[in-house]
Design brief:
With 323 residues, the chain is mostly helical. Helices cover 37% and strands 5% of the residues. The chain binds heme C (HEC) (2 copies).
């Protein structure tokens, strides 16, 4: 496996990148080629409405070709650049090898990968994670702190303004306070048929993920830049990130991975491989103050978090990855 993916790497990366053109940062120019395919009122899961007070609503964001000329459009473009080339554009705030667009696919447009157009009109919102009402800016700050293992840009910073402008523009025409079809991840009612299993997850990983993300999960670089992002280890999201929770990871993976072949894994495979991924060490939760058990109790008190539990003989969080 290792040998297979190492030998032809440059060639393979080129082929894969070509195949994944829509969501690769390379597709900087031109009107949103990719937006056309995935915007159909997507999964049956998103139609379920038992707990939602408002029914799901279809929405299509404006194409990139519609970004206007002038200072406002310039700010939209700047936000997009930040979103897609995060470490290059905001080095002071990024502490790992990821970009925003690695998880919010197609530069934040792809339904079912927490698209920006599905998020913008849902804030301010109460979040149980920090137990108060969060502005949209504060929500962005959270992804810097945890998903990017970095520092949150100040709310009045230029970076924040650019990202907010990009999100606001992408949500042009969307209703406020309405859960749009394809917003967030398709988590509702998405349960594993059997409890997720590490050994089965490892087999799924080797079969369906290692080719791109590396057999060690550390991603792959070309010319010093990740072309396939790391799933764990020092350059990945930290223990406080949403993706470390099994339900988020399983739903994201089911809908979006393997890249460009979303919704091909069985539900069980998606949960198993999510567990395998989230049972590996990654950077420490920034809220950790020296006591793993207390950090688990305070911030990870849910079966969806493996932090502070022992999996495969290892106490997760006890040897966090460092750069
Ligand atoms: C490691 C993956 C990952 C990375 C990298 C990442 N995010 Fe997120 N983001 C998530 C997850 C997981 C959620 C929660 C989604 C959910 O609960 O539906 C989220 C949620 C969000 C939301 C709220 C979405 C909603 O529908 O409420 C916004 C906005 C957001 N991220 C912006 C960003 C920005 C800006 C960056 C880069 C600075 C970024 N994210 C980087 C995984 C990531
Ligand atoms: C064809 C190559 C390919 C395959 C196969 C693939 N991925 Fe990915 N994956 C990517 C790319 C590329 C990204 C970043 C997308 C972007 O930036 O547009 C990504 C992003 C991710 C992310 C969010 C970013 C991060 O590093 O945490 C996760 C999680 C993920 N993949 C998990 C998986 C899992 C699990 C599998 C196997 C079921 C898988 N992927 C298979 C190419 C692939």
């Amino acid at each position: 496996m290792t040998r297979r993916h190492r030998l032809p790497l440059p060639a393979m990366a080129a082929v894969l990148l070509a195949a994944c053109q829509p969501s690769s940062p390379a597709s900087d120019t031109g009107p949103a080629k990719s937006a056309s395919t995935p915007t159909a009122p997507a999964s049956p899961a998103s139609v379920a409405k038992p707990t939602a007070p408002t029914p799901a609503t279809a929405f299509t964001p404006p194409p990139e070709s519609a970004i206007p000329e002038g200072p406002f459009g310039d700010m939209v473009r700047e936000g997009r650049e930040l979103f897609v080339h995060t470490a290059e554009k905001a080095p002071a705030y990024v502490g790992n090898g990821l970009t925003c667009a690695n998880c919010h696919l197609d530069a934040g447009r792809q339904p079912n990968s927490a698209p920006l157009w599905g998020a913008y009109g849902m804030y301010p919102a109460y979040r149980s994670k920090n137990k108060h009402v969060n502005s949209f800016g504060e929500r962005l700050q959270g992804c810097f702190k945890y998903s990017m293992n970095g520092k949150a840009p100040p709310l009045d910073s230029h970076e924040m303004l650019a990202l907010e402008t990009y999100a606001y523009w992408m949500a042009s025409g969307a209703p406020i306070g309405v859960k749009l079809d394809g917003a967030g991840y398709p988590k509702q009612g998405f349960k594993p048929p059997q409890p997720p299993d590490y050994a089965r997850g490892k087999a799924v990983f080797q079969r369906d993920c290692a080719l791109c993300h590396g057999s060690d999960g550390q991603g792959q670089k070309v010319a010093g830049r990740y072309v396939f992002p790391p799933l764990w280890g020092p350059d990945s999201f930290n223990w406080g990130a949403g993706m470390h929770q099994l339900d988020n990871a399983a739903a994201f993976i089911k809908a979006n991975m393997p890249l460009s072949r979303g919704n091909t894994l069985s539900d069980q495979d998606a949960w198993d491989v999510a567990m395998y991924m989230d049972a590996h060490e990654r950077p420490q939760d920034p809220r950790f103050k020296g006591d793993l058990a207390k950090t688990r109790k305070d911030f990870h008190d849910t079966p969806m978090s493996l932090y502070g539990t022992t999996v495969n003989g290892h106490l997760l969080g006890s040897q966090p990855a460092k750069r």
